[in-house]
Write a structure and sequence with these properties.
The complex is a heterodimer of chains A (about 100) and B (about 400). Chain A has 2 helices and 5 strands. Chain A has about 100 residues and is mainly β. The two termini of chain A are about 30 Å apart. Chain B has about 400 residues and is of the alpha/beta class. Chain B folds into 2 domains: about 10-185 and about 200-255, Rossmann fold; about 260-395, Rossmann fold (3-Layer(aba) Sandwich). Chain B has helices at about 15-25, 40-50, 65-75, 90-105, 130, 145-160, 190-195, 220-255, 280-290, 310-315, 335-345, 370-385, and strands spanning about 10-15, 30-35, 60, 80-85, 110-115, 140, 170-175, 180-185, 215, 260-265, 270-275, 295-300, 305, 320-325, 355-360, 390-395. Chain B has a 7-stranded mixed β-sheet, with helices on both faces. A 6-stranded mixed β-sheet of chain B has the order 10-12-11-14-15-16, sandwiched between helices. Strand 1 of chain A pairs antiparallel with strand 9 (about 215) of chain B.
Chain lengths: ~100, ~400
């Protein structure tokens, strides 16, 4: 499931808009978070066997399974490389963000 | 569930049993508890009710009081009406979760069997356990007898679940003097209780697949104060809910306990003792004796310690000459907790404040006798007449003349 779109969280403007106790609507994403990535996973669609290992292991839920081929959500991928390391089909490679090769 | 033989009948039961019947009549959906003297028989009886098929409720046996409160909080997150009970060391172990439940605004109701805290080790009654939880954000109510215990549990759910309150409530019973003493108690019928206490209607802070929410979220410094202010407002709103519950209860069941406080022979009183719990029963007898002698004595029973009856005490202070406060606790380095707060309330009474004396009494189950209480009244009269009285006194101290 792709992540919800980034949206603006509406803070209470008056005392009566305060929730009764500390709770909030779940699944609200207020900003993207991928700024510290130094290399990015690249999925070779032709090699992907759709085994879901990358989707299961991604600590950030940044693998999108909904499309024709698996895709990485670069708005949230931190570049940890777990998916590339675990992919049994060797379909994922890590590319340096500065374009200087792997 | 069939009509039980005890419904709508008079029974000779302990105050612990009275609480068990009351809880059963309130139809909680989840109870989690860990046994501790003198609370044990409450949860034993409830587990018997459930095992016997008379109560549609999940009883969770847990490994500690901390877990008991965590478990009922989890159930409250699902929108369930819940109950637990503890005492003394167990309440101390529950402390962290008490704050979690109140801060999260879940209207859990619990019973505390008042018992002192070790060391020295002792299983008997005083108020040092629940008063140590003064700032846990729970409503606290102290009862005088088994009937009041039963009736107050029914009212506690009404007040705690009030939409303007949504704050947990602790019903406090003196260990042994109430918990293990048998009295005649009127047990209401299920139909009458159902009419007084409708099913729990939780607010929005519940887990719901159709409307996912994050509960018990972290709150940054920029917003924490607003949540704390909200808890304080809920406590103040509870005062109205307590009065309404008292009135509705009287209309439905014909018994009235006074709401925040009960005054006894205070209309024209000059000298009044304040106190909480079972000692107020003995104090009534002493008031009657002194009145027969022509002395203008009265008592004010503090039922709710949280929210605190500031206004009631201030109003009393405006019309009496002397006030004594019986504390079944002592905050070492200052005074009794009730005295400290009552004196603060009197400061805002306006005009001349009455003379005040604090009597530390009934610690760890020691009897507070009629003679002790009569001496307290005479000491308050002496102070009011300008006589020398120490402000804080341990009643009946072994080495002193009392």
């Amino acid at each position: 499931m792709p992540k919800p779109a980034v949206s603006v969280f509406q803070y209470p403007r008056t005392a009566t808009e305060m929730p009764c106790g500390p709770y909030a609507k779940a699944g609200v994403i207020v900003e993207t978070n991928a700024g510290w990535r130094i290399s990015r996973p690249v999925i070779a669609a032709a090699r992907c066997v759709r085994c879901q290992q990358c989707w299961l292991i991604c600590p950030d839920g940044a693998i999108d399974r909904t499309g024709e081929s698996y895709a990485v959500d670069y708005n949230f991928c931190k570049g940890c490389g777990l998916c590339a390391r675990e992919c049994p089909a060797k379909a994922i490679t890590m590319a340096k963000e500065d374009g200087q090769g792997e | 569930m069939s009509n039980e033989a005890w419904e709508g009948r008079r029974a000779f039961i302990s105050a612990n049993d009275a609480v068990s019947y009351a809880v059963r009549l309130c139809r909680p959906e989840v109870i989690a508890a860990y046994p501790i003297t003198p609370q044990t028989s409450v949860v034993e009886k409830l587990s018997e009710f459930i095992a016997g098929g008379g109560m549609d409720c999940q009883f969770i046996n847990v490994e500690s009081e901390h877990s008991a409160m965590a478990a009922v909080m989890g159930a409250a997150m699902m929108g369930c009406r819940t109950f637990t009970a503890s005492s003394s060391q167990g309440l101390m172990y529950m402390c962290e979760m008490l704050h979690y439940v109140s801060g999260s605004r879940f209207p859990v109701v619990m019973m505390n069997a008042n018992r002192t805290l070790a060391a020295p080790w002792n299983i008997y009654g005083d108020h040092r356990d629940s008063l140590a939880m003064r700032d846990a954000g729970w409503l606290q109510v102290y009862v005088e007898n088994a009937q009041e215990a039963l009736d107050t549990v029914l009212q506690a759910y009404r007040v705690a679940e009030d939409a303007a309150v949504r704050t947990p409530a602790m019903v406090c019973l003196d260990g042994f003097v109430l918990t293990h003493t048998y009295e005649i108690v009127n047990i209401p019928g299920q139909r009458e209780v159902d009419a007084f206490l409708p099913p729990y209607a939780p607010g929005e802070n519940v887990l719901d697949l159709a409307n996912p929410r994050s509960l018990c979220i972290s709150v940054a410094p920029e917003w924490q104060t607003e949540f704390r202010c909200q808890q304080q407002a809920a406590m103040e709103a509870a005062k109205g809910a307590i009065a309404r519950a008292d009135g509705d209860f009287a209309a439905a069941f014909g018994r009235r306990w006074g709401g925040m406080v009960e005054e006894y022979r205070c209309e024209d009183a000059d000298y009044v003792l304040l106190g909480m719990g079972s000692v107020m029963g003995t104090t009534r007898l002493v008031v009657d004796k002194l009145r027969a002698e022509g002395l203008k004595a009265g008592l004010m029973k503090i039922r709710f310690f949280r929210p605190f009856p500031r206004e009631e005490i201030a109003a009393l202070g405006r019309r009496v000459k002397g006030i004594g406060v019986i504390d079944r606790d002592v905050s070492f380095g200052n005074a009794g907790a009730l005295y400290t707060e009552a004196k603060a309330a009197l400061y805002s009474a306006g005009g001349a404040s009455p003379h005040t004396v604090n009597f530390i009494a009934g610690l760890s189950g020691r009897d507070i006798t009629k003679e002790h209480i009569e001496t307290m009244y005479r000491k308050v009269m002496n102070a009011a007449a300008g006589g020398a009285e120490r402000e804080i006194q341990f009643a009946g101290l072994r080495w002193e003349e009392w």
